[in-house]
Each structure stands twice: as C-alpha cells, then as structure tokens.
Task: structure prediction
Amino acid sequence: MELKPDEISFRISGQNGDGIFSAGDVFAKICSRSGLNVHGYRSYQSVIRGGHVNYSVRAANWDAKAPADHIDVLISIRGSGFEVDAPHMSPYGIILYDSKGFRIKPDEIKVKEGVKAIDMPALELASQYSNLKIVANTVFMGAVVYLFDLDLKVFENILAENFSKKGKEVIDLNVDSARAGYNWAKENVPQIDHDVKIDTTKPPKMIIGGNESIAYGMVNGGLQYFAWYPMTPASPIGQFLTSYGVKAGVAVKQMEDEINVSNNVVGAAVAGARAACATSGGGFALMTEAIGYASMVEAPAVFIEVARGGPSTGLPTKQEQGDLHQLIGASQGDFPRAIIAQTSVEDGFYLGQEALNIAEKYQMPVLIASDLYLGEHFETVNEFDYERIPIERGKLILDEVPEEQRPYKRYLVTDDGVSPRTIPGVKFGRYDAGSDEHDEFSRLVSDVRAGFPEAIEVRLQQMKKRMTKMDVLLKELPAPVVEGHSIDDSDLLIVSWGSQLDIVREARAHLEKTNNIRTSHLHIKYILPFHSKEVGEILRSFEQKGVNIMMYEGNYTGQMARHIRAETGFEIKHKYLRYDGETVLPIEIVKYVKDTFGGN
Amino acid sequence: MSVTQKVDLKFSLSDWKDNVAKPTWCPGCGDYGVLSATRKALVSLQINPEDTMVVSGIGCSSNFPHFIGSYGIHSLHGRAAPNAIGVKLANPDLTVIAAGGDGDGFGIGLGGFLHAARRNFDITYIVMDNQIYGLTTGQASPTSLIGQKTKSTPYGNIEHPINPLASALAAGATFVARAFSGDGKEFAEIMEKAIAHKGFSFVDALSPCVTFNKLNTFDYFRERIYKLEDEDHDPSNIMKAYERTYDWDHNDRVPTGIFYEISRPTYEEMDVTLKEFGNPVKRGAIRPKNIKDIASHLY
Ligand SMILES: Cc1ncc(C[n+]2csc(CCOP(=O)(O)OP(=O)(O)O)c2C)c(N)n1
Ligand code: SF4
Ligand SMILES: [Mg+2]
Result:
C-alpha cells in the first residue's frame, strides 16, 4: 500500500438478535467521540430472528457523507458474513470471527487474497466475566478498538453510560471484557495502518439519522401535531416524536391506518395546529385522497414519504427511489401542493422547518420525498443553526376577524391565491372547510347551485385562485444550480435527485481524482412546482456544448428522468438505474461512468 | 333551562341558524329533525358556536355542517371520526360534534368510528341512519335490513345488517343512545345529554330517507318505537344495554333513549403531551426552549 488511507471503515454482521445494531451504534459513538466524522448504515431484513444483518460505519477527519467502498475490519459473528460481507473487504482488511463460540465451519471461511481472517476466542474470553453470549460482542469490539488504534478509555466510558442503569457489576464485567478483547488483539493481530487523526478532547458532534433529523427539524419549527401508523422505513420519525417530540410539546397520535392518519392530520391542521405525518409507499397510497382534500380545504399539512423497495409490499427493508410518480400522481384533479425531496441527513433538519412554513404560508399540503437509505442511515452533523429558519405562519388570524374583513370570506380571492385563514375559536371567522367545490364564503357550489352560470364562475375563480399559489411558490423556491465543473470545463453532467446527493458527490470526486474525468452535477430537490425553465436551459446548454449527460436514480423506469422530460421536453438518454434494493456505493457509479463513457 | 326562553340567552337559536346555507335535503327528509334537535340542544347547553366544530364525511347527511352556525369540516366519505379527533386533540377546548350517514360511519368509515369510540375522545358522534345510501341514489347500506330491495340489491338484500349500538358498546363507547328524528323533543334531550357527556357519545339517529328507503319510513318507526325510560332500563348495565340493542332484531320493537352511559377518563385527559403542556393550538407554534435537551441522547 503506497498511501495510508485517510478513513477507517468497519462492519459487524450476524443474525437478527445477535446485537449487531447496538455494537454498530457503539462503534459510531467511539468514532464521533474521537473527533471524527461518521457515516453509518444498516442492512437488514423483514424478520425478527435469524437472517443476516449488518451495520457499516465509516469515519474520517474529512466530511465522509457516503457509504465506504470497502470494509477494513469486519466482525463476522456468523458464517454468513463470509458470503455477504467478506467480498467487500479492502485488500488489507481483517475479519474477526469465533469459530468455536459461534460454530462457524472451516468450509464457510472464504476470503480474498490479502485479507486476514482471524479466529478469535471471543466467547471464551467473555466467559471469564459473564455467561451471557452477547458479551462476546464487547470482547470483539475491544479488539476492534485496538485494530484501529482508537482509545480504549472512550469505549469504556460509553459502556459505563450504556449500563449505568444496570449497576457497577455489569459495567465492570463489560469493561473487563472490552479490555480482554483489546489485549488479545494486541498480542495476536497487526493493526490497520491508517492516517486518521484521533482527538478525544474535541466535543463530539451529534450523530443523527435522516428520519430523526427531519423529525427534529419539525420540532424546532414549532410542530404541534403528528400522527402515524408504523411502517418501515418511516417509523423512526414517529418513534422519535413519540419519545422525544412529546417532551417539547408535540401531540403525537398513533392511528388505526394511514387513511385515518392523513385525515386526522388534516383535522388538526384545520383546527390550527402545525401538523405532519409520515409513512412509506403503501401507507402513502392510502393517504392520497386526503392530500387532495387538504389542498381543497387549503389546510396546511406535511406528508413525509420514506420510500422502500416496491411494488406492493415489495422489499420492506431495502432501498428504492421508486415512489416519485406515486407522489406526483397522488389524488384526483388538479390542485396545488409542494413536493420536495430531502437531500441529506443535515438537510432534513432545515427541510422539516421549511416544509411546515410552506404548508402554512401557502395553505397547502407539502409532500416530502425521502427513502430508506436517507431515512435510516446516520451521520455526524455540524451543530444545527436553530435560528436559521423562523416560524412563519402566513396569513393566519388567531383572535378576531378585523371589522373591514367581515363578513369573513375564508376563500377570498387574492393576488397570491392565499386567503386570510381563521381557526375555530376565532371571533367572526366561522366557515366550513369543505372538500366539495365552494365559493369565497366556503358555501357549497357542488349541489343545488352546480351548473348555474354563477356556480360555473365560482368554479373557475376558485380553481385559478388555488392554482395561483403554485406560481407564487415557484418564485420563492431556489432554482437548482450546477455544482462542480462549469459547462466549458466538463466531461459529464450527472443528474440525480433526493437522497443520492452525497453519494454522487463522492463518486464525482473519485472520478476526478483517480480517473481524471471532470464532472458537473445537477441535483433536483424541488419536484413540484418544478423549475422547468431553468432545468431545461441547463440540460440544453450542456447538450449543445457536447457534454455527455446521464441520469442516475434508484428505480427501474427512470421516474425523475421522465418527470424532467415532461416538464422540459428534454430527454436524458443515458441512465444508470438501480432497483436491486441495495445501498449504492460511490464506486458503482464510477464504474458505470467508466463503462459507458470510457476513461481509465 | 328551557329552549323557549330565548331572550335571556347569550347564544340563541339564531346564532346557530342564521348566516348559514339553507338545508338542501329533500322535503320530509329525516335529517331536518336531527338538525333542529341538535341546534336546540346546543342552545340549551349555551355552547358558543365559535368554539364549536362540526365535522362530517360525505353523503346527504354529511352536508350538516353547512347548515349549522359553528365552524365546520365537510371532509371525505367515511372520515368524520379521524378528522374530528384530530380537531379535538389539537384543540381540546372546542366542542366537537361529528355527524354523517350510515354508509359514512358504518361502511367506509367503520374503522374510524370504532377506534374513536374505544379511545374515548370527548366528542359526540351522530349518525343519521337511514339504512340506505342516499346521496348516491339508493344503494344498500350496512344497516339495510335483510330482504330489502335497493338499487344495489334488486333481488333483496342478503347481508345481515350491522348493529351499530352493540358495535359502539363493544368498542368501548361511554355513551350510547338512539334517537328518532320524528320525536324532536326526545331527540333534543338525548342530544343535550350526549354533548354534555364527557367522553365519546354515540347517537344512532333514526332519520328516514323519504326518497330512497320505502321500508324504514316514519310510520315504520312509529309503529315499533318505545322509550327505554318507560321500561326502567338501567343505563349503567352494559349487558342489559346489549340486550336492548337486539330488540329490533329479536322482537321487532325499536327502543330509543340512552342505552348506556358510564364515566371513564377521556383520551385528552390522559395524553402525555396535553397533560404536560396543555392545549396545543392555544400554546401556539413555538420553538421549544428545550430543543437541545431532547436530543442529548444523540451525542
Ligand atoms: C371514497 C368515496 N367513495 C364513494 C363515494 C360516493 N358516495 C358519496 S356519499 C355515499 C354514500 C352516502 O351514504 P350515507 O353515508 O349513508 O349518507 P346519506 O346520503 O344516506 O345521508 C357514497 C358511496 C365518495 N364520495 N367517496
Ligand atoms: S335522498 Fe334521502 S337522505 Fe338524501 S336528502 Fe333526500 S330524503 Fe334525505
Ligand atoms: Mg344513509
């Protein structure tokens, strides 16, 4: 190895029930408390016991915001790790396993050349301190701390915190086990050579997942009401809010199904609460009728959709960006709504607040497109700017309708399409939030009045009023800009959207550094209303310059490419489409680019 | 307080009646009686229309909020209950009344109805049960009787009707009653008690559809109705209440009145957030002071 790697990459794998996720969490914490930036993600299945799960953590002094291409150290609790995880080892990687403790047969052990597979008596070492099998993990983790030359004391402190409720005896046996693992490794395994600087004196950064970040952001944005029905991979949003959001005053309601989640949230929004809900594809399908309803009654509500592998129940624990068309097509008729993609863990914190603001300012539903990879992976983040985004409630009347506005017209026609809104309890502000077409006073025009000339006028007036909000909103939203090389200096324009921002960024850095391919990047965040003019101009200008253009996205049909074509008339011909369910590694994008456009 | 002494009242019938649309129901529709009884009960209770939310689904009966002078939500078919509990949890100080049809509440919206009942939100849910789908011009509903010919059952209905009162009892409703649109006086009394009851009140309103249901007419009910209070029914006894809900099936007698009423803590009283922080809407959309504390486990 010529250059020492400037990052460390760790994975632990085993069955559900082996404590894989807690071990991964601990390693991530050790790294963040060592002053490092951390990226982590889990791979798991839709079973409670058995199967194969893993947890990958990458850490560096620089801002590592994508999954690592290789694994330096793997703890393979079970034999299956040699099949699933071992192929991803870096050439100098080390695999720790315990053949005796976890009955791994010799013929299961397969490794690439250069990779060291080390049979460590973790369970035997652990048995000196405890007869619990899970303690072997602590022994293994002690060894990992040594292999990466991390500070054992940091690990010991985390153990003391994690077991603080269980008492000194339990803390001690875990600390002893960690030390035993550390010392065993010191005697038996060479360390990984790396160039990552450890600093345990820096205050650690927050480690947070993409689901939690948007939930946390909404709380900071004055969220008052949240409803949910559990569904992977959206559940951590509800879980976070019901555990921590309630401590900051958020009312959280688990409902009986997603139809009623969505209606419940619209009810709360009409009553005056900043309200949101979250689900995944199947649940979102059930919410669709209520999205048009929210738009029709001009209720502000946020609907978060964390996509997983479809169609139908599909791949509940796997990644896909396959629900874009469902989001765009959700609910009958033409109606205003915003559709915005979350683009990173950090973005979630600000987007959660922005979405609530847009919902209230424009009195419309805001749909957030996230996905399993983004929602369930976590990163260390820079200290959030809690004051960056003010709470903006728009034209909301909270006490009494001013005299000059009486008799009150809830759906008053205005220049920006947004009417002053009352909530129940406000004097002189009564109205009916009706899902039928209505006039400015909120009176029905769908029944006895329908078809009369006056009702036809009302229909046209109210449709235009509502749709005007889309034009006004588009002007407020920032148009996408191309990052990376300028048009005069670029070999390739990569177009992507949503969760894949940082993965593409890393792939681009890699292309530049090791393949000398200069790239530009157009990343889509605002999906509806869409910056058709700006996006169309960018694409056409790159094409005219003769720069290659490719779409990269996580679905079979190229849904964003089709959306772009529908909005701009521009067809992106090269498409790298992923629908296998796995987390996409930057190196895989690099490979597609090299295979498609050449390069060394 | 009698509803005729309008003069002394802070809120009078006209507060509930004026400045709203004129009902668009067919002449003679049972829903008129439900509407006027509900308005009377609200006046009797001296409830402020501006602090009241009437929430409905979709159907003839679900046009109800447009005809009553409070705030209203005319939501989606079958969604009165989830909308209503969203309103109530967001602002528990409001008087919340959910209203709709039998198709709305026992067909498409059955899940929401039963779950709202078991959660014991302090809301009143009134179903204008005409045993037919009125607005869609006369198909069978979940309460249509066996043998009834409708547009969707031209050879006679072969499905056993749901027993809404027994269902509400089984779900855990803390107030279960039946009222007849043809008896405005008793109806208003029942509505008054239902709204005053702290917890989930369910009122099954016999409200004939004069246009599409030629079987369950005003006369049909007049021949069969009796009042529970005339027969010494004990509304605290749930098993007796169940028995009475089967009188129609078993004995061709239709009881009205309060089948069951008990007191149990409401959802709002027990919710952790409301207990600690009070009314979410009145508290306002604010940046929590402890925003950093709630994330301390993430370091
Ligand atoms: C999702 C949905 N499905 C179907 C309909 C059509 N629909 C409107 S009202 C109604 C039934 C109304 O019956 P009921 O609730 O008993 O009210 P009624 O008209 O009898 O008062 C139906 C099926 C709809 N509006 N929405
Ligand atoms: S169709 Fe029936 S339920 Fe509808 S308004 Fe007419 S009588 Fe009433
Ligand atoms: Mg009906």
